[in-house]
Amino acid sequence: MKKILLLSDTHSYIDEKILSYVKQADEVWHAGDIGDLSVTDAIKKLKPLRAVYGNIDSTEARMEFPLHNRFMCEGVEVWITHIGGYPGRYNPSIRQEIYSNPPKIFICGHSHILKVMPDKTTGLLHMNPGAVGKHGFQKVRTMLRFEIDGEKIQNLEVIEFGNR
């Protein structure tokens, strides 16, 4: 079993509250718009990190992290990308791949809107953790945490912080 902390859109922001949740996870997944790489460096000092770059990220971030990160965690195939859309409205650049070879979990960021929903057409679970950084329009900063046990995704929890 793996305990996963999923976050996105840090926009160069990380603090001790976020890091306290990092310490409780087995792995941390970041769905892009990292901002300053000190964010991912702080996470990597504590736990294994899987991440992708987002549209605001520097050349340095793009050299360290891929645009798409597709991997297995326990018995679950995961695909993380920053701008991916959601069921019924996938980004045109990935739509064909989603329908022809869907992962079990599809994760994206970018919108700053927390959303977890099944795609009844493909059977995948779409997850967007919202934004945990302080830059953006969101009134509440959010992250997700959950467990993957074999092929089961369980104990999903929304973590909320005030915006300022």
Automatic annotation (TrEMBL):
Q: What is its EC number?
A: 3.1.4.-
Query: Key word Metal-binding present in the record?
Result: yes
Q: Which family would the database say this protein is a member of? A: Belongs to the metallophosphoesterase superfamily. YfcE family.
Q: Which protein is depicted?
A: Phosphoesterase
User: Which domain of life does the UniProt lineage start with?
Assistant: Bacteria
Q: Could you tell me which NCBIfam families the record lists for this protein?
A: yfcE
Q: Does the keyword Electron transport apply?
A: no
Q: Which Gene3D superfamilies match?
A: 3.60.21.10
Q: Can you give the residue ranges of the Calcineurin-like phosphoesterase domain?
A: 3-149
Among InterPro entries, the record links this protein to: Calcineurin-like_PHP_lpxH, Metallo-depent_PP-like, Phosphodiesterase_MJ0936/Vps29
Record the organism: Aequorivita vladivostokensis
Instruction: Supply the alphabetized keyword list.
Output: Metal-binding
Q: Which SUPFAM superfamilies match?
A: Metallo-dependent phosphatases
Cofactor(s) required for function per UniProt: a divalent metal cation
